[in-house]
Amino acid sequence: MKKMLIFFISVIPVATIGQSKSDSWKISLDSKVIVNLASEKKSDSAIIYLNKLQLSQANSLIIEFTEAQQSKDWNRIFTLYNGQKELIHFDFPQSSGIYELPVQKLAPRVHDERNLFLYTYSLPNDKNLAATVRVRRILICRIIYKD
Fold first, then answer.
1. What torsion do the CA atoms of 79, 82, 84, 87 make, to the nearest 10 degrees?
2. Cα(29)–Cα(6) distance, rounded to whole angstroms?
3. Can you give the pLDDT at residue 106?
4. Domains assigned to the chain
């Protein structure tokens, strides 16, 4: 009995170490980091407050997304929604896990909407598989415009 107890106690830390990796993201305005979170934290509490001065001085909103388990056959997609949960179409050009959006495109929408939601989801490259997969979007943060 003691041997089994010792065995289970020694296996538990090994099992939890393997599960400790999770998705994480860092959001920056140019080189200034605004949000740095991991997916196990409550991302719906992550709020970015932007004002007119920040939007006029910054060139780009940069999202660095690190996946715990990278899958080559899947695409990461970022979307913006307004306060009424309506999709706002933007292209987030990607370069090796870094997604960049010019602030010149973002600023008018942030100013008009005042409350935006940044989500991410992943889709398989295979169109047949994509048609069968249920997509779950993950809230990354809220972007709120302050005068």
1. -30
2. 50
3. 81
4. 22-145 (2.60.40)
